[in-house]
Write a structure and sequence with these properties.
- By secondary structure, the chain is an alpha/beta fold.
- It has helices spanning about 10-25, 45-50, 65-70, 125-130, 140-150, 160-170, 195-205, 315-330, 360-365, 415-425, 430-435, 450-470; strands spanning about 5, 30-35, 70-75, 80-85, 90-95, 100-105, 105-110, 115, 135, 155-160, 175-180, 210, 215-225, 235-240, 240-245, 245-250, 255, 280, 290-295, 300-305, 310, 345, 350-355, 370-375, 390-395, 400-410.
- The protein has 3 domains: about 5-115 and about 255-330, FAD/NAD(P)-binding domain, CATH 3.50.50.60; about 125-250, FAD/NAD(P)-binding domain (3-Layer(bba) Sandwich), CATH 3.50.50.60; about 350-470, FAD/NAD-linked reductase, C-terminal dimerisation domain (Enolase-like, domain 1), CATH 3.30.390.30.
- The strands form 7 sheets. Strands 3-2-1-7-19-18 form a 6-stranded mixed sheet. The chain has a 5-stranded parallel sheet with strand order 9-16-10-11-12. A 5-stranded antiparallel sheet has the order 22-23-26-25-24, sandwiched between helices.
- The longest helix has 21 residues, at about 450-470.
- Bound molecules: flavin-adenine dinucleotide (FAD).
- Flavin-adenine dinucleotide binds near residues 80 and 111.
- Flavin-adenine dinucleotide binds near residues 8, 33, 80, 114 and 297.
C-alpha cells in the first residue's frame, strides 16, 4: 500500500489530495494542515471587509469532513515541524495537545503555500504583535481585519499590488480614510502599464484615497488611535512622509513557506521549490526526485511569455499545478502547460484584466518588445449605452509573438485577458490574432471586436516599423 503525505491544505493541497485519490482510491493519503479549515478563498477578504460577502461559510469550497469522505486521512491543527525527504519521514505536532508524532511516507507532496511578506522594517514586528498592523492571508487574518474595519476611522495599506489595492478600495467604501503606500511609482505597477494604472489612480483619487507612491516604508511607530487609546494607532514612516492611522495592513507580497525543505531541494533564490513539467522536485544538485512533488505558492511556475521558471503566487496556478500531481504521482504522464499569470481586479466601477508581460517588465528583462494602446467603445454607438475600453498589447518586435495584454473599462473585460492567455500559450503572433475569427453582435461588441482591433493596430505598426528598418 502506497502512503502519501500532503503538507498544507488550502488550494494546492486540496486539489492534489482529490486528484491523487481519484487516480489511486486505494492509497493512504495523510493530509497535514496547521489551520482548522481547508480551501479558504482569500481572494474574498477585501470584499468581506467591504461588506460584500453573502456568507463567510461560502468562502470555503470543501471541508476536512468532505475530504475524509473522498478517502483522505485529515490531520487538522497539525503542523509538520521537520521533513527528512530522502529518509521519507516527517514529524508533526498536534497543535491542540502539543504532542508530536513521526509519520513515514512513500511519496511526499509539498503544498505549504506562502506567507505574507513582513520585511525587516523598524517597528513592524511590534506593530504586528500589538495589532496596530495586520497581515492579510488566511481566514483568521480576514476575521481580524473585518472586526477592526468596524471600528477604525483610518487605515494605511502598505503595498499597492492586487491585494493592497482591493483592500484600499473596499475599506474606502466604508467611510474609512485610506492611504495607499508603495515603493513603486504606480499602483498595480507589476501587472499593468501606464495606460491602465493612470485610470486606477484616478479612480482612487476620485474616491478620496491618498496615494503615496514611489516611497519605501522605513518604520512603524505607535500612536494614539482615534479611540483615544495610547498605542492603538500607528504612523507609517516612509522615505518621503509620515502617514498616521488607526491601523496599517500589509499587502507587500508573499514569500514561499519552504524552510522545512529548502536545504534538501532545488529552489529559486528566495525559496520557491523548482518543479519540472510533471510537478516533481529535485535535489539541490538537480537530480529529479520521482517521489517528491510540489505545487502552488511554495513552488515555481513556468512563465510562458519568457519561457522561464518563476515565482507567481496565484490560486489559478496552484490549482492547475496541483491537479497534475494525481496524474503524475505514479509515473510521469501529463505535462504542465505553464502560465501567463492571467489575472483581473475591479476597483469601484473600473474593471482591469491582464495576461502575460507588461512592456515595462519586457524592458527590464531586456526583451526587444513594443506595444500599442487603443481606446474604443466596446459596442456600437447606436446602442443605448456603451463605454470605452482601453487595451494595450505587448509583442516581440522581431517575431511579432504576443507577450502580454491589458484591458480596462467600466464594463466586464475579464474574458479579453483569457483570450490573450490562450493566444500566448498557443504562441500566436499579433498577425495571427488579427486574423482570428471573433463574433459580432451589437449587444456584445463592434463589427471588429476590440481585441481584433488591438491586434490589427499592432500588426500594422509592426509591419510599418519593419518596412522602416528595411528602408
Ligand atoms: C487577500 C488575497 C487575495 C488573493 N486573490 C487572488 C485572486 O483573486 N486570484 C488568484 O488567482 N489568487 C489570489 N490570491 C492568491 C491565492 O490565494 C494563493 O495563490 C493561493 O492561496 C495559493 O494556494 P496554496 O494552496 O498553494 O497555498 P496557501 O494558500 O498559502 O496554503 C498553504 C497551506 O499550507 C499550510 N501549511 C504551511 N506550512 C505548514 C506546515 N508546516 N504544516 C502544516 N500545514 C502547513 C498553511 O496553513 C496553508 O493552509 C490571493 C491571495 C490573498 C492573500
Amino acid at each position: 500500500m502506497t502512503t502519501v503525505a500532503v503538507i498544507g491544505c488550502t488550494h494546492a493541497g486540496t486539489f492534489a489530495t482529490t486528484s491523487i485519490l481519484r487516480n489511486h482510491p486505494d492509497w493512504t493519503v495523510d493530509v497535514f494542515e496547521k489551520n482548522d479549515t481547508v480551501s479558504f478563498l482569500s481572494c474574498g477578504i477585501a470584499l468581506w471587509a467591504g461588506n460584500h460577502v453573502s456568507s463567510t461559510e461560502k468562502m470555503f469550497y470543501t471541508s476536512p469532513e468532505e475530504l475524509e469522505e473522498t478517502g483522505a486521512s485529515m490531520h487538522m491543527r497539525t503542523e509538520v515541524t521537520d521533513i527528512d525527504v530522502k529518509g521519507k519521514r516527517l514529524n508533526a505536532t498536534d497543535l491542540e495537545t502539543g504532542k508530536s508524532k513521526q509519520y513515514r511516507f512513500d511519496k511526499l507532496v509539498i503544498t505549504t503555500g506562502s506567507s505574507p511578506a513582513a520585511p525587516f522594517i523598524q517597528g513592524l514586528r511590534e506593530a504586528l504583535d500589538n495589532g496596530r498592523a495586520m497581515l492579510c492571508k488566511d481566514f483568521n487574518d480576514g476575521k481580524r481585519i473585518v472586526e477592526r474595519a468596524k471600528k477604525i476611522k483610518s487605515v494605511v495599506v502598505v503595498g499597492a499590488g492586487y491585494i493592497g489595492c482591493e483592500l484600499a478600495e473596499q475599506l474606502s467604501t466604508r467611510d474609512i480614510k485610506v492611504t495607499l503606500v508603495d515603493a513603486l511609482p504606480h499602483v498595480l505597477d507589476n501587472n499593468y502599464d501606464k495606460s491602465v494604472t493612470d485610470q486606477a489612480e484616478a479612480a482612487f483619487e476620485e474616491h478620496g484615497v491618498t496615494l503615496a507612491m514611489n516611497q519605501k516604508v522605513v518604520a512603524f511607530r505607535p500612536e494614539t488611535g482615534s479611540d483615544g487609546v495610547a498605542d492603538s494607532g500607528v504612523t507609517v514612516v516612509t522615505e518621503l512622509g509620515e502617514y498616521t492611522a488607526d491601523l496599517a495592513v500589509m499587502g507587500a507580497g508573499f514569500v514561499p513557506n519552504t524552510s522545512l525543505v529548502a536545504a534538501q531541494l532545488r529552489t529559486l533564490g528566495y525559496g520557491a521549490i523548482i518543479v519540472d513539467k510533471y510537478m516533481r522536485a529535485a535535489t539541490p544538485e538537480n537530480d529529479v526526485l520521482d517521489d517528491v512533488f510540489a505545487a502552488g505558492d511554495c513552488a515555481t511556475v513556468h512563465f510562458n511569455p519568457t519561457n522561464t521558471d518563476e515565482y507567481r503566487p496565484l490560486a489559478t496556478n496552484a490549482i492547475r499545478e496541483a491537479m497534475l500531481i494525481g496524474e503524475n504521482i505514479d509515473e510521469p504522464t501529463k505535462t504542465y502547460a505553464g502560465t501567463q499569470a492571467t489575472s483581473a481586479v475591479q476597483l469601484y466601477d473600473l474593471s482591469m484584466s491582464s495576461s502575460g508581460m507588461t512592456l515595462d517588465l519586457a524592458d527590464r528583462r531586456h526583451i526587444e518588445a513594443d506595444s500599442v494602446t487603443i481606446q474604443e467603445n466596446y459596442r456600437p454607438e447606436f446602442m443605448l449605452s456603451t463605454t470605452p475600453v482601453t487595451a494595450t498589447i505587448v509583442y516581440d518586435r522581431a517575431t511579432g509573438r504576443i507577450l502580454g495584454a491589458q484591458f480596462a473599462a467600466k464594463h466586464d473585460i475579464s474574458m479579453a485577458a483569457n483570450l490573450i492567455s490562450v493566444a500566448i500559450q498557443a504562441g500566436f503572433t499579433v498577425d495571427q490574432l488579427a486574423s482570428t475569427d471573433m463574433l459580432f453582435q451589437p449587444n456584445f461588441d463592434q463589427p471588429v471586436n476590440f481585441v481584433s482591433s488591438l491586434a490589427i493596430t499592432a500588426a500594422d505598426k509592426r509591419s510599418k516599423d519593419l518596412e522602416g528598418i528595411e528602408e
